[in-house]
Amino acid sequence: MNIVLCVTVLLSVPMTLERVVAVVGSEPVLHSDVVSLLIESGIDQDSAFQYDQHNPSYQLALEQLIEDKLLVEGARREDLYPGREEIEDAVDNALEELKSSFYSQQEFTDYLASVGMTEATLRDSYTSQMGDRIASENYVRVKAGSAMNTMPSDARAFFTQHPETVEEVLAPTNLSWIYLPVLPGDTGEAETLLADVRLAIESGETTFSAAATAYSQDGSASSGGDLDWFGRGDMTATFEGVAYSLEPGEIAGPFLTPFGVHLIKLTDRDDQRVRASHIIIIAQLTSSDLDKTILLAEDLVAEFEAGRSFSEAVVEYSRDPDPAHAGGSLGTVNIGAWEGEMRHAVIDLEPGEISVPVAVEQDMAVAIFRASEEQSIDWEDFSDEELTSMLQSVYWQNYYSGMVESLKADIPVVMNLSDEN
Questions:
Q1: How far apart are CA 254 and CA 216, in angstroms?
Q2: Is 45 helix (H, G, I), strand (E, B) or coil?
Q3: Which is it for the CA torsion 128, 131, 132, 133, positive or negative?
Q4: 86 and 201: one domain?
Protein backbone atom coordinates (compact mmCIF):
# COMPACT_ATOMS: atom_id res chain seq x y z
CA MET A 1 0.00 0.00 0.00
CA ASN A 2 1.15 3.55 -0.75
CA ILE A 3 1.25 4.78 2.82
CA VAL A 4 1.68 8.44 1.88
CA LEU A 5 -1.52 8.17 -0.14
CA CYS A 6 -3.24 6.27 2.63
CA VAL A 7 -2.36 8.86 5.28
CA THR A 8 -3.29 11.73 2.98
CA VAL A 9 -6.72 10.17 2.53
CA LEU A 10 -7.13 9.72 6.26
CA LEU A 11 -6.30 13.36 6.85
CA SER A 12 -8.78 14.52 4.21
CA VAL A 13 -11.77 12.39 5.22
CA PRO A 14 -14.38 14.64 6.88
CA MET A 15 -14.74 13.58 10.48
CA THR A 16 -18.51 13.45 10.07
CA LEU A 17 -18.00 10.55 7.67
CA GLU A 18 -15.80 8.57 10.06
CA ARG A 19 -17.35 5.51 11.65
CA VAL A 20 -16.59 1.93 12.58
CA VAL A 21 -17.91 -0.39 9.86
CA ALA A 22 -16.69 -3.69 11.36
CA VAL A 23 -14.87 -5.08 14.37
CA VAL A 24 -12.49 -8.05 14.04
CA GLY A 25 -11.75 -9.50 17.46
CA SER A 26 -11.18 -6.23 19.30
CA GLU A 27 -9.80 -4.32 16.27
CA PRO A 28 -12.07 -1.81 14.46
CA VAL A 29 -12.25 -1.35 10.68
CA LEU A 30 -12.97 2.30 9.90
CA HIS A 31 -14.88 3.77 6.99
CA SER A 32 -11.76 5.79 6.15
CA ASP A 33 -9.76 2.54 5.92
CA VAL A 34 -12.17 1.35 3.21
CA VAL A 35 -11.97 4.68 1.37
CA SER A 36 -8.16 4.49 1.43
CA LEU A 37 -8.19 0.99 -0.07
CA LEU A 38 -10.67 2.05 -2.77
CA ILE A 39 -8.39 4.93 -3.81
CA GLU A 40 -5.35 2.66 -3.74
CA SER A 41 -7.19 0.31 -6.14
CA GLY A 42 -7.54 3.14 -8.69
CA ILE A 43 -10.94 4.63 -7.88
CA ASP A 44 -10.82 8.43 -7.93
CA GLN A 45 -10.97 10.15 -4.56
CA ASP A 46 -14.27 11.98 -5.09
CA SER A 47 -16.06 8.76 -6.07
CA ALA A 48 -14.48 6.77 -3.24
CA PHE A 49 -15.80 9.26 -0.66
CA GLN A 50 -19.33 8.74 -2.03
CA TYR A 51 -19.30 4.93 -1.88
CA ASP A 52 -21.21 3.16 0.89
CA GLN A 53 -22.00 -0.40 1.94
CA HIS A 54 -24.40 -0.84 -0.99
CA ASN A 55 -21.60 -0.44 -3.54
CA PRO A 56 -19.99 -3.76 -4.64
CA SER A 57 -16.50 -2.24 -4.70
CA TYR A 58 -16.97 -0.96 -1.14
CA GLN A 59 -18.05 -4.44 -0.04
CA LEU A 60 -15.01 -6.06 -1.65
CA ALA A 61 -12.65 -3.55 -0.04
CA LEU A 62 -14.25 -4.10 3.37
CA GLU A 63 -13.93 -7.88 2.99
CA GLN A 64 -10.23 -7.46 2.17
CA LEU A 65 -9.63 -5.33 5.26
CA ILE A 66 -11.44 -7.86 7.46
CA GLU A 67 -9.28 -10.65 6.05
CA ASP A 68 -6.14 -8.60 6.70
CA LYS A 69 -7.07 -8.10 10.36
CA LEU A 70 -7.93 -11.80 10.74
CA LEU A 71 -4.44 -12.70 9.49
CA VAL A 72 -2.85 -10.26 11.92
CA GLU A 73 -4.80 -11.73 14.83
CA GLY A 74 -3.80 -15.22 13.67
CA ALA A 75 -0.16 -14.12 13.67
CA ARG A 76 -0.47 -12.80 17.23
CA ARG A 77 -1.88 -16.10 18.42
CA GLU A 78 0.92 -18.03 16.73
CA ASP A 79 3.59 -15.68 18.13
CA LEU A 80 4.48 -14.52 14.61
CA TYR A 81 4.15 -10.80 15.20
CA PRO A 82 7.45 -9.02 14.44
CA GLY A 83 9.58 -7.40 17.13
CA ARG A 84 10.36 -3.70 17.36
CA GLU A 85 13.75 -3.99 15.67
CA GLU A 86 12.33 -5.83 12.66
CA ILE A 87 9.58 -3.21 12.30
CA GLU A 88 12.06 -0.33 12.54
CA ASP A 89 14.29 -1.90 9.88
CA ALA A 90 11.28 -2.30 7.58
CA VAL A 91 10.24 1.31 8.18
CA ASP A 92 13.76 2.54 7.38
CA ASN A 93 13.77 0.58 4.12
CA ALA A 94 10.32 1.84 3.14
CA LEU A 95 11.28 5.45 3.81
CA GLU A 96 14.49 5.13 1.79
CA GLU A 97 12.57 3.60 -1.11
CA LEU A 98 10.07 6.45 -1.02
CA LYS A 99 12.78 9.11 -0.83
CA SER A 100 14.52 7.61 -3.86
CA SER A 101 11.54 8.63 -6.01
CA PHE A 102 12.30 12.31 -5.32
CA TYR A 103 15.18 14.31 -6.78
CA SER A 104 16.28 15.72 -3.43
CA GLN A 105 15.58 15.69 0.28
CA GLN A 106 14.09 19.17 -0.06
CA GLU A 107 11.64 18.03 -2.74
CA PHE A 108 10.63 15.14 -0.48
CA THR A 109 10.16 17.48 2.49
CA ASP A 110 8.16 19.95 0.39
CA TYR A 111 5.88 17.17 -0.84
CA LEU A 112 5.16 16.01 2.68
CA ALA A 113 4.39 19.57 3.72
CA SER A 114 1.94 19.89 0.82
CA VAL A 115 -0.13 17.01 2.27
CA GLY A 116 0.13 18.27 5.84
CA MET A 117 2.86 15.91 7.02
CA THR A 118 6.46 15.87 8.20
CA GLU A 119 8.99 13.06 7.95
CA ALA A 120 8.38 12.32 11.63
CA THR A 121 4.61 11.94 11.19
CA LEU A 122 5.19 9.82 8.09
CA ARG A 123 7.53 7.57 10.06
CA ASP A 124 4.85 7.21 12.76
CA SER A 125 2.32 6.25 10.07
CA TYR A 126 4.67 3.66 8.59
CA THR A 127 5.39 2.22 12.03
CA SER A 128 1.72 1.88 12.95
CA GLN A 129 1.02 -0.14 9.79
CA MET A 130 4.26 -2.02 9.13
CA GLY A 131 3.96 -4.38 12.08
CA ASP A 132 0.56 -5.62 10.94
CA ARG A 133 1.76 -6.01 7.37
CA ILE A 134 4.79 -8.12 8.35
CA ALA A 135 2.68 -10.16 10.77
CA SER A 136 0.13 -11.12 8.12
CA GLU A 137 2.90 -12.01 5.67
CA ASN A 138 4.58 -14.18 8.32
CA TYR A 139 1.34 -15.98 9.08
CA VAL A 140 0.53 -16.71 5.45
CA ARG A 141 4.09 -17.87 4.67
CA VAL A 142 4.24 -20.27 7.59
CA LYS A 143 0.75 -21.67 7.11
CA ALA A 144 0.70 -21.94 3.33
CA GLY A 145 4.15 -23.43 2.80
CA SER A 146 3.22 -27.00 3.56
CA ALA A 147 -0.01 -26.84 1.57
CA MET A 148 1.77 -25.75 -1.63
CA ASN A 149 4.15 -28.71 -1.33
CA THR A 150 1.21 -31.06 -1.98
CA MET A 151 0.42 -29.52 -5.39
CA PRO A 152 0.21 -32.18 -8.14
CA SER A 153 2.87 -32.17 -10.84
CA ASP A 154 0.50 -32.56 -13.86
CA ALA A 155 -1.42 -29.27 -14.06
CA ARG A 156 -3.17 -30.13 -17.33
CA ALA A 157 -4.56 -33.37 -15.91
CA PHE A 158 -5.72 -31.60 -12.74
CA PHE A 159 -7.63 -28.94 -14.70
CA THR A 160 -9.25 -31.58 -16.89
CA GLN A 161 -10.33 -33.67 -13.88
CA HIS A 162 -11.47 -30.78 -11.63
CA PRO A 163 -13.24 -28.24 -13.85
CA GLU A 164 -15.47 -27.02 -11.00
CA THR A 165 -12.45 -26.06 -8.87
CA VAL A 166 -10.85 -24.21 -11.76
CA GLU A 167 -14.10 -22.40 -12.56
CA GLU A 168 -14.57 -21.27 -8.97
CA VAL A 169 -11.08 -19.82 -8.54
CA LEU A 170 -9.91 -18.75 -12.01
CA ALA A 171 -13.29 -18.21 -13.72
CA PRO A 172 -11.67 -18.67 -17.16
CA THR A 173 -13.73 -16.80 -19.75
CA ASN A 174 -13.26 -16.09 -23.44
CA LEU A 175 -13.54 -12.31 -23.72
CA SER A 176 -13.35 -9.56 -26.29
CA TRP A 177 -13.14 -5.87 -25.52
CA ILE A 178 -13.30 -2.37 -26.87
CA TYR A 179 -10.53 -0.20 -25.40
CA LEU A 180 -11.26 3.54 -25.27
CA PRO A 181 -8.42 5.73 -23.97
CA VAL A 182 -9.41 8.73 -21.88
CA LEU A 183 -7.95 11.74 -23.67
CA PRO A 184 -7.46 15.25 -22.29
CA GLY A 185 -9.67 18.08 -23.49
CA ASP A 186 -8.73 21.69 -24.20
CA THR A 187 -5.48 20.84 -26.00
CA GLY A 188 -5.88 23.15 -28.99
CA GLU A 189 -2.91 25.41 -28.19
CA ALA A 190 -0.60 22.45 -27.54
CA GLU A 191 -1.65 20.76 -30.79
CA THR A 192 -1.05 23.96 -32.75
CA LEU A 193 2.39 24.39 -31.16
CA LEU A 194 3.48 20.84 -31.95
CA ALA A 195 2.11 21.09 -35.50
CA ASP A 196 4.36 24.13 -36.01
CA VAL A 197 7.29 22.29 -34.41
CA ARG A 198 6.77 19.36 -36.78
CA LEU A 199 6.81 21.71 -39.79
CA ALA A 200 10.06 23.24 -38.53
CA ILE A 201 11.63 19.78 -38.17
CA GLU A 202 10.50 18.58 -41.58
CA SER A 203 11.68 21.80 -43.26
CA GLY A 204 15.14 21.42 -41.74
CA GLU A 205 14.92 24.50 -39.50
CA THR A 206 15.66 22.32 -36.46
CA THR A 207 16.19 18.69 -35.52
CA PHE A 208 13.80 16.48 -33.61
CA SER A 209 16.34 16.18 -30.80
CA ALA A 210 16.81 19.94 -30.48
CA ALA A 211 13.05 20.52 -30.56
CA ALA A 212 12.51 17.91 -27.86
CA THR A 213 15.11 19.59 -25.65
CA ALA A 214 13.41 22.95 -26.17
CA TYR A 215 9.74 21.99 -25.91
CA SER A 216 9.19 18.59 -24.29
CA GLN A 217 7.82 18.70 -20.75
CA ASP A 218 9.02 15.37 -19.38
CA GLY A 219 12.36 13.95 -18.30
CA SER A 220 13.24 12.73 -21.80
CA ALA A 221 13.86 16.36 -22.87
CA SER A 222 17.38 16.18 -21.42
CA SER A 223 18.20 13.34 -23.84
CA GLY A 224 16.59 14.90 -26.90
CA GLY A 225 13.32 13.06 -26.35
CA ASP A 226 14.89 9.59 -26.55
CA LEU A 227 12.70 6.94 -24.86
CA ASP A 228 15.13 4.07 -25.52
CA TRP A 229 13.80 0.64 -26.51
CA PHE A 230 10.35 -0.49 -25.39
CA GLY A 231 7.98 -3.35 -26.11
CA ARG A 232 4.29 -4.13 -25.96
CA GLY A 233 2.78 -3.12 -22.65
CA ASP A 234 5.60 -0.74 -21.67
CA MET A 235 3.81 2.43 -22.79
CA THR A 236 0.21 3.55 -22.84
CA ALA A 237 -1.78 1.69 -25.49
CA THR A 238 -2.47 4.77 -27.64
CA PHE A 239 1.21 5.72 -27.76
CA GLU A 240 2.28 2.18 -28.65
CA GLY A 241 -0.33 2.02 -31.40
CA VAL A 242 1.24 5.01 -33.14
CA ALA A 243 4.83 3.93 -32.48
CA TYR A 244 4.38 0.45 -33.93
CA SER A 245 2.69 1.85 -37.04
CA LEU A 246 5.83 3.78 -38.07
CA GLU A 247 9.00 2.91 -39.92
CA PRO A 248 12.41 4.18 -38.73
CA GLY A 249 12.78 7.88 -39.49
CA GLU A 250 9.05 8.56 -39.73
CA ILE A 251 7.38 11.24 -37.59
CA ALA A 252 3.75 11.19 -36.43
CA GLY A 253 1.56 13.65 -34.59
CA PRO A 254 0.45 15.75 -32.98
CA PHE A 255 -1.72 13.11 -31.34
CA LEU A 256 -3.29 12.67 -27.92
CA THR A 257 -2.67 10.12 -25.18
CA PRO A 258 -3.95 10.22 -21.60
CA PHE A 259 -0.74 12.08 -20.69
CA GLY A 260 -0.95 14.93 -23.19
CA VAL A 261 -0.10 15.89 -26.78
CA HIS A 262 2.80 14.17 -28.57
CA LEU A 263 5.05 14.20 -31.56
CA ILE A 264 6.90 10.93 -32.07
CA LYS A 265 9.81 9.85 -34.24
CA LEU A 266 10.64 6.19 -34.65
CA THR A 267 14.41 5.68 -34.65
CA ASP A 268 14.76 1.89 -34.80
CA ARG A 269 12.87 -1.39 -34.49
CA ASP A 270 13.43 -5.14 -34.34
CA ASP A 271 11.06 -8.11 -34.33
CA GLN A 272 9.58 -7.34 -30.90
CA ARG A 273 10.58 -3.85 -29.78
CA VAL A 274 10.87 -0.32 -31.07
CA ARG A 275 12.98 2.69 -30.17
CA ALA A 276 11.49 6.16 -30.39
CA SER A 277 11.85 9.77 -29.35
CA HIS A 278 8.97 12.06 -28.49
CA ILE A 279 7.99 15.60 -27.62
CA ILE A 280 5.16 15.94 -25.12
CA ILE A 281 3.12 18.89 -23.94
CA ILE A 282 1.61 17.54 -20.74
CA ALA A 283 -2.15 17.87 -20.18
CA GLN A 284 -3.84 16.71 -17.00
CA LEU A 285 -6.89 14.46 -17.28
CA THR A 286 -10.00 15.70 -15.51
CA SER A 287 -13.14 13.99 -14.29
CA SER A 288 -14.99 15.50 -17.26
CA ASP A 289 -12.57 13.76 -19.65
CA LEU A 290 -13.40 10.43 -18.01
CA ASP A 291 -17.12 11.25 -18.04
CA LYS A 292 -16.96 12.04 -21.75
CA THR A 293 -15.34 8.68 -22.51
CA ILE A 294 -17.82 6.79 -20.33
CA LEU A 295 -20.67 8.54 -22.15
CA LEU A 296 -19.24 7.39 -25.49
CA ALA A 297 -19.02 3.84 -24.14
CA GLU A 298 -22.60 3.98 -22.84
CA ASP A 299 -23.78 5.14 -26.28
CA LEU A 300 -21.98 2.17 -27.85
CA VAL A 301 -23.62 -0.26 -25.40
CA ALA A 302 -27.00 1.19 -26.35
CA GLU A 303 -26.15 0.63 -30.03
CA PHE A 304 -25.22 -2.99 -29.29
CA GLU A 305 -28.59 -3.48 -27.60
CA ALA A 306 -30.20 -2.12 -30.77
CA GLY A 307 -28.33 -4.68 -32.88
CA ARG A 308 -25.02 -3.12 -33.86
CA SER A 309 -22.13 -5.53 -34.42
CA PHE A 310 -19.57 -5.58 -31.61
CA SER A 311 -16.74 -6.52 -33.99
CA GLU A 312 -17.65 -3.62 -36.26
CA ALA A 313 -17.38 -1.21 -33.33
CA VAL A 314 -14.01 -2.72 -32.37
CA VAL A 315 -12.59 -1.70 -35.76
CA GLU A 316 -13.98 1.82 -35.51
CA TYR A 317 -13.37 2.68 -31.87
CA SER A 318 -10.94 0.35 -30.06
CA ARG A 319 -7.37 1.61 -29.65
CA ASP A 320 -5.74 -1.51 -28.19
CA PRO A 321 -2.47 -1.73 -30.17
CA ASP A 322 -1.67 -5.38 -29.39
CA PRO A 323 -1.94 -7.36 -32.65
CA ALA A 324 -2.69 -10.47 -30.56
CA HIS A 325 -6.05 -8.87 -29.78
CA ALA A 326 -7.26 -8.98 -33.36
CA GLY A 327 -10.94 -8.14 -33.54
CA GLY A 328 -10.83 -7.20 -29.86
CA SER A 329 -10.32 -10.81 -28.73
CA LEU A 330 -8.48 -11.22 -25.42
CA GLY A 331 -8.68 -15.02 -25.62
CA THR A 332 -9.16 -16.95 -22.39
CA VAL A 333 -8.85 -14.61 -19.43
CA ASN A 334 -8.75 -15.80 -15.82
CA ILE A 335 -11.11 -13.15 -14.50
CA GLY A 336 -11.17 -14.77 -11.08
CA ALA A 337 -7.87 -12.95 -10.52
CA TRP A 338 -9.38 -9.57 -11.38
CA GLU A 339 -10.44 -7.17 -8.66
CA GLY A 340 -12.83 -4.31 -8.05
CA GLU A 341 -15.13 -2.91 -10.69
CA MET A 342 -13.49 -4.81 -13.56
CA ARG A 343 -14.27 -8.13 -11.90
CA HIS A 344 -17.77 -7.02 -10.98
CA ALA A 345 -18.48 -5.97 -14.58
CA VAL A 346 -17.59 -9.31 -16.18
CA ILE A 347 -17.83 -12.10 -13.61
CA ASP A 348 -21.50 -12.89 -14.30
CA LEU A 349 -21.55 -12.32 -18.07
CA GLU A 350 -23.31 -15.05 -20.03
CA PRO A 351 -22.00 -16.06 -23.49
CA GLY A 352 -22.72 -13.24 -25.91
CA GLU A 353 -23.49 -10.66 -23.20
CA ILE A 354 -21.84 -7.25 -23.12
CA SER A 355 -20.70 -5.52 -19.93
CA VAL A 356 -21.41 -2.04 -18.70
CA PRO A 357 -18.52 0.38 -19.35
CA VAL A 358 -15.80 0.17 -16.72
CA ALA A 359 -12.84 2.47 -16.05
CA VAL A 360 -9.47 0.68 -16.27
CA GLU A 361 -5.78 1.58 -15.96
CA GLN A 362 -6.42 4.02 -13.09
CA ASP A 363 -9.11 5.89 -15.05
CA MET A 364 -6.88 6.39 -18.11
CA ALA A 365 -9.12 4.20 -20.28
CA VAL A 366 -12.64 2.80 -20.42
CA ALA A 367 -13.40 -0.77 -21.51
CA ILE A 368 -16.47 -2.60 -22.75
CA PHE A 369 -16.22 -6.40 -22.50
CA ARG A 370 -18.10 -9.10 -24.38
CA ALA A 371 -18.22 -12.75 -23.35
CA SER A 372 -17.67 -14.87 -26.45
CA GLU A 373 -20.35 -17.26 -27.64
CA GLU A 374 -17.85 -20.13 -27.49
CA GLN A 375 -16.78 -20.70 -23.89
CA SER A 376 -15.18 -24.15 -23.97
CA ILE A 377 -11.65 -24.07 -22.60
CA ASP A 378 -8.96 -26.15 -24.30
CA TRP A 379 -6.12 -26.58 -21.80
CA GLU A 380 -3.84 -27.63 -24.66
CA ASP A 381 -3.80 -23.96 -25.70
CA PHE A 382 -1.71 -23.12 -22.61
CA SER A 383 1.99 -23.72 -22.15
CA ASP A 384 3.28 -25.87 -19.29
CA GLU A 385 4.59 -22.72 -17.57
CA GLU A 386 1.20 -21.01 -17.80
CA LEU A 387 -0.61 -24.08 -16.49
CA THR A 388 1.77 -24.43 -13.57
CA SER A 389 1.26 -20.79 -12.64
CA MET A 390 -2.52 -21.20 -12.87
CA LEU A 391 -2.43 -24.34 -10.75
CA GLN A 392 -0.43 -22.49 -8.11
CA SER A 393 -3.15 -19.82 -8.10
CA VAL A 394 -5.87 -22.45 -7.65
CA TYR A 395 -4.06 -24.22 -4.84
CA TRP A 396 -3.13 -20.97 -3.16
CA GLN A 397 -6.66 -19.54 -3.36
CA ASN A 398 -8.25 -22.74 -2.08
CA TYR A 399 -5.85 -22.88 0.84
CA TYR A 400 -6.13 -19.15 1.56
CA SER A 401 -9.95 -19.27 1.56
CA GLY A 402 -9.93 -22.22 3.95
CA MET A 403 -7.44 -20.48 6.21
CA VAL A 404 -9.56 -17.31 6.37
CA GLU A 405 -12.74 -19.28 7.05
CA SER A 406 -10.98 -21.10 9.87
CA LEU A 407 -9.93 -17.77 11.39
CA LYS A 408 -13.47 -16.42 11.05
CA ALA A 409 -14.80 -19.44 12.92
CA ASP A 410 -12.41 -18.71 15.79
CA ILE A 411 -12.27 -14.89 15.83
CA PRO A 412 -15.52 -12.90 16.10
CA VAL A 413 -16.30 -10.52 13.24
CA VAL A 414 -19.05 -7.99 13.88
CA MET A 415 -20.40 -5.91 11.00
CA ASN A 416 -21.67 -2.39 11.59
CA LEU A 417 -22.79 -1.16 8.17
CA SER A 418 -25.39 1.29 9.38
CA ASP A 419 -24.96 4.82 8.03
CA GLU A 420 -25.09 6.00 11.63
CA ASN A 421 -22.17 5.81 14.09
A1: 13
A2: helix
A3: positive
A4: no
Number of C-beta neighbours around residue 309 at 10 A = 10
Q: Which domain holds residue 335?
A: 169-182+287-380
Statement to judge: residues 198 and 173 lie in one domain: no
Torsion sign across C-alpha atoms 19, 120, 138, 93: positive
Average pLDDT of the chain to the nearest whole number: 83
Q: What is the CATH number of the domain that holds 314?
A: 3.10.50.40
Residue 68 to residues 35, 134, 296, 320, 379: CA-CA distances in angstroms? Answer: 15, 11, 38, 36, 34
DSSP output for 145-213: HHHHTT--S-HHHHHHH-HHHHHHHH-EEEEEEEEEE---S--HHHHHHHHHHHHHHHTTSS-HHHHHH
Model pTM?
A: 0.61
Q: Which residues, at least 6 apart from 414, have a Cβ–Cβ distance to it below 8 Å?
A: 22, 23
Whether 364 and 182 have beta carbons less than 8 Å apart is answered as yes
Average pLDDT over residues 23-46: 80
Answer yes or no: do 93 and 235 share one domain: no
Q: What is the band of 383 on the pLDDT scale with cuts at 50, 70, 90?
A: confident
H helix count then E strand count, the chain: 16, 11
Q: Are 312 and 304 in contact (CB under 8 A)?
A: no
Give the number of residues written for the chain: 421
The rounded distance, in Å, linking the Cα atoms of 99 and 277 is 29
How many domains is the chain built from? 3
Terminal Cα-to-Cα distance of the chain (whole angstroms): 27
Question: What percent of the chain is modeled with pLDDT above 90?
Answer: 25
For residue 235, the 8-state DSSP code is: S
